[in-house]
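Input chain follows. Return structure tokens only.
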Amino acid sequence: MKTVLQKISYVVLMLGLISLISFGAIHLAPNSFFASGELNPNITQESLEQLKRVYGLDQSLFMQFFSWLRAIVHLDFGISFASGKPVRDEILDRLAITLVLNGVSLVLVLVISLYLGIKAAMKQGLYDKSVKQFALISYAMPSFYLALLTIIVFAVRYKLFPISGLHSQGLPQEGWIAYADVAWHVVLPIFVMVFGGVGSLILYVRSLSLAVLKSDYVFFAKSRGIEGKVLLRHFILPNLAPPIVTILGLSLPGLIGGSVILESIFAINGMGLLFYQSALSRDYPVIMGILIIASFLTLLGNMIADLILVKLNPHFKRRNI
């Protein structure tokens, strides 16, 4: 319980620091949503001043920050400048698809990386070289380029998958047909996310597996005739678990950040596309709300990873907590 409370305190402290830095960076950016001519070229200065008073932008930055901080304690992220809707509703409407895309991609990345990395370490030769070449291509491939390439090949030329969006016109929006339609639309985005994420993890798993296979206890196990699945289940996987959990916890920010690019390219109405559109229109409340939600999910993932590490290795608690 003490460990959990310490981790929760750390998450709260980091969220406060992230809020302060993000708020300052956003308000230091040039121009604003209410800059003259942004809303309407014929709008008067008096109308702009009235809008600023409505949204509290006529106050000092210090007062604006603490008013906003007091509001988010009650999960109130304010009102969107662009749509006039509550930011919380805007984010909740789009959060699910982003979490599903990232969650499915993370699971696939983990499974593929463990399988290829461990097998490459145990099966030296042509197979190992092929896996390393695939991993290096994956690591070096820019996600935006791969996304455009898959759209051109699989959507435009061969018409196997939709170009963008989540729903096809003319199909029902409920029932198993709707779920199948959404699954069909997200094949290419998930493929791009998985292909771009497995490279570094495959190389890492392979390196760890080679170190385990060269250890004395594995040599002793092999001398007793232990091979194959038994060696994998009782000697390799238990020693890979702690570092892999750590890597997965650290990879969460990259997955969430990558969804901004891919959702924009594939026109998926998720949190990444909302962030991109809000950044272009300088919609401060939405930008801040997304940053806080993404930061919270990242810190939560890291906290869960740390707690899992404590379970897997009690010595981790004494060294790091």
